[in-house]
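ok new one. same drill as before - structure tokens go in, u give me an amino acid for every spot. 499 of them this time. try not to just spam alanines like last time pls lmao
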């Protein structure tokens, strides 16, 4: 299909895109058959441990958003709108006056340890999956709420706002719960696209804590006068609900042609799967640990969570702390020359979730499975990237089998789209061409949903994606090498490392 953007003057939108390691405010200009994106402001997202609990520094993030809106407004000469997306599952609690009851707890905090077992005593894993279609992750919101049961904060709470909804509330004074992110709580029925009274009732979770659901494209208020003054903006500036789970926005920002594609949204996590019209439920899907999260325009994001670039980020952080800052570029060049598939690990192993000591944990996993231990950083990086490519392959193969739909292309978006070695290894492992880019797919999906709500672009996802294909540089990686070597390596993981 041809691009469908309005022929009127371009409008500029701010996409607030909060990731697990940094946040950014991006400027998207849409109109006259074009879409362009540039960064206005980037700021770190540094969790803070206090009295043994790992928290998000949500006020620092809000400060970064305000600074970013000021920079965006200054660069663009005004804004046509704002949209907010972030990572999933975490939340802030508000009291009756609307005040925040403490910094939100980080999903990697250990307070949820054992919460899934307590839930299973009330709702079996099969019942929970049939009701919500969500994969088992020990930090899903439902487990966080069970872990928080009896706490003073939860007892005092009158509202629960997921992270992007909390930022939107501070910007607008209006409350809402955006659906794509709500679908990650394990409290939404993907068939009805509404709350599951069965799950909430059995677990004693008060759904009244959540404000009404919003859908991507719905109005979410306008910037408050004090926010306009702080950011140096002239109002009114509308805030629009977008796919507020960053993966929902990223999938909307995939420049795919047709429906026969798989995607891997890469960052701290790799989210690998397919876009479907209806959820895939049932025991086989549950055992394969696939999730049915909701997407833009009534779609379902059928995917598996993989540990992602977190493994590499943690290794680089560890080496930098020990030996001074490490540049990733030469590490990747050395890894490209390292022996392929010498050692591989299960990138979905929960042993890799927590921060700290990642190179040694990877070495320990290799040692425990009888494989050679990486001898230097280059071999460790190669082990990580080979293992991620294998995890991508497993997810793409399983998604096709379980959904009954074949794919002919894999799209890699997000930060990993810049990693040419990872993209090529994924093509080799999957035996399918990989189209890499855009790296800022979440921000682009965010902007396009805003632009469509404002009338600057028209049509469904097919038209939005055609606009992206027409405007963005993309790289194509064809599969190469011995595909049977990847099959043997996959089997090695299945057998615990033994050839």
């Amino acid at each position: 299909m041809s691009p469908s953007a309005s022929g009127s003057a371009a409008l500029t939108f701010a996409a607030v895109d909060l990731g697990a390691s940094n946040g950014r405010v991006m400027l998207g200009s849409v109109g006259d058959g074009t879409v362009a994106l540039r960064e206005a402001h980037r700021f770190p997202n540094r969790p803070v441990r206090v009295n043994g609990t790992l928290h998000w520094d949500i006020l620092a993030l809000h400060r970064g958003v305000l600074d970013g809106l000021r920079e965006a407004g200054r660069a663009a000469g005004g804004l046509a709108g704002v949209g907010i997306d972030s990572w999933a599952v975490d939340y802030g609690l508000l009291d009756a006056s609307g005040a925040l009851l403490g910094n939100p707890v980080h999903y990697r905090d250990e307070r949820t340890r054992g919460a899934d077992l307590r839930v299973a005593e009330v709702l079996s894993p099969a019942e929970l999956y049939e009701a919500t279609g969500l994969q088992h992750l020990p930090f899903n919101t439902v487990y966080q709420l069970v872990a928080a049961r009896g706490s003073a904060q939860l007892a005092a709470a009158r509202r629960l706002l997921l992270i992007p909804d909390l930022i939107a509330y501070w910007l607008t004074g209006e409350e809402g719960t955006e659906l794509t992110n709500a679908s990650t709580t394990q409290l939404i029925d993907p068939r009805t696209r509404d709350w599951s009274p069965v799950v909430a009732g059995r677990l004693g979770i008060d759904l009244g804590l959540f404000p009404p659901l919003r859908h991507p494209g719905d109005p979410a208020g306008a910037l408050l006068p004090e926010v306009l003054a702080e950011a140096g903006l002239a109002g009114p500036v509308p805030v629009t609900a977008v796919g507020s789970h960053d993966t929902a926005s990223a999938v909307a920002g995939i420049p795919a042609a047709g429906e026969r594609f798989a995607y891997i949204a890469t960052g701290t996590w790799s989210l690998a799967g397919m876009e479907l019209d209806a959820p895939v439920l049932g025991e086989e899907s549950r055992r394969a640990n696939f999730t049915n999260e909701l997407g833009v325009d009534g779609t379902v994001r059928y995917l598996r969570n993989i540990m992602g670039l977190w493994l590499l980020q943690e290794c680089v952080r560890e080496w930098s702390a020990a030996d001074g800052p490490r540049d990733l570029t030469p590490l990747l060049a050395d890894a490209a020359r390292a022996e392929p598939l010498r050692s591989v690990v299960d990138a979905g192993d929960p042993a890799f979730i927590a921060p700290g000591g990642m190179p040694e944990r990877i070495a320990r996993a290799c040692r425990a499975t009888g494989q050679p231990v990486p001898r230097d950083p280059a071999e460790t990086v190669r082990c990580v990237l080979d293992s991620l490519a294998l995890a991508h392959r497993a997810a793409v193969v399983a998604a096709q089998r379980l959904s009954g739909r074949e794919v002919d292309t894999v799209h890699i978006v997000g930060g990993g789209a810049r990693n040419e070695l990872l993209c090529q290894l994924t093509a080799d492992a999957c035996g399918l061409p990989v189209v890499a880019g855009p790296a800022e797919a979440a921000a682009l999906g965010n902007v396009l949903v805003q632009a469509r709500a404002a009338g600057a672009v028209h049509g469904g996802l097919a038209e939005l994606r055609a606009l992206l294909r027409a405007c963005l540089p993309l790289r194509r990686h064809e599969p190469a090498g011995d595909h049977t070597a990847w099959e043997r390596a996959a089997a090695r993981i299945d057998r615990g490392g033994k050839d």
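The chain has a mean pLDDT of 95. and btw The first helix runs from residue 58 to 76.
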